[in-house]
Amino acid sequence: MGNKAYFLCCLCIYAYMTTFPPVDMIEEVDVVLKRQHGKHKHGEIKLFVFGDSYVDTGNWPKSMSSSWKRPYGFTYPGYPSGRFSDGLVLTDFIASFLGIKSPQPYANRKKISSHEMDNYGVNFAYGGTGVFNTFVDQPNMTTQINYFQQLVEEEEQVYNKEKMSSSIAIVSVAGNDYATFITKNNNNMEDLGNVTKSILSQLELNLRRIHGLGVQKIGITAMEPIGCLPKMTISSSYENCSEYANSLSIFHNQMLHQIIDKLNNQTSRPIFFIIDLYSAFMTALNIQQNHPGNS
Ligand SMILES: *[C@@H]1O[C@H](CO)[C@@H](O)[C@H](O)[C@H]1NC(C)=O
Ligand SMILES: *[C@@H]1O[C@H](CO)[C@@H](O)[C@H](O)[C@H]1NC(C)=O
Ligand SMILES: *[C@@H]1O[C@H](CO)[C@@H](O)[C@H](O)[C@H]1NC(C)=O
Ligand SMILES: *[C@@H]1O[C@H](CO)[C@@H](O)[C@H](O)[C@H]1NC(C)=O
Hints:
295 residues; Rossmann fold; binds 2-acetamido-2-deoxy-beta-D-glucopyranose; signal; lipid metabolism
């Protein structure tokens, strides 16, 4: 797949998340669980997932994606499972904190029991996608939310407002929109300010829609330090992150914080929270540097 945005994969999340899940996220999840205390019944928390390879657990058709080939899946589950990772992805960790099974990929909906979807939610994420169309021919986030809306409308019994009130959504924007834009623009990384604005205003619409469908807690990933992705470190023989590329992540995340603050200001209590992958990656990379040889 060469250039096609796949370099944004899940390299460090596994190592970091197993030891240091982002604090904000645990606190938020904890609040949700406490709110459930006393009335929490098995299967009441559903997880709905939108976005890209950081959270996709197997939506790509088997014949079309490298995620179904080795060495993906090497450490978990031991064979390729459609995840763009050697092991677990962010979705799996969050599901585990919530004490539920990782929700099934939407692509499996005809193969699995409706009981499982009804109890644990659904994963609508497709690796390589963005809020806009990217180089991959898979559903962008708008289409993913359309699938969700269809499900909510078709199964009113299961997805009514009351039952949805204890549900959680994860939205991952790891940067495939940027990768697409930069590639189309002859690898020019300058003047991306307007690109950031349009990505985030589309994301804002998407978040409003997910909330409008009844989800009361929505986590959005802050962008990882893209200057630390292996491809960006070639010029320093894989030694140093590109500060220049990282400044794009920092700018994106600053604007994201503003949007999240604005959105939360418009609701009676905070709905939206940030899953800070930037700090997660940086901590993992610093630990790595101090303990060379650890994996
Ligand atoms: C998402 O994809 C659909 C189908 O390709 C397209 O019509 C729509 O414009 C896309 N949405 C955005 C926000 O790019
Ligand atoms: C960004 O948007 C502003 C206002 O719409 C415009 O004046 C400017 O030329 C744009 N910059 C680029 C690089 O497209
Ligand atoms: C990496 O960064 C360190 C600290 O700034 C510097 O000493 C070293 O020369 C850099 N390595 C390369 C290959 O650029
Ligand atoms: C939140 O709302 C208050 C009152 O409407 C306003 O003064 C404040 O600037 C808002 N903050 C943000 C971050 O939008």
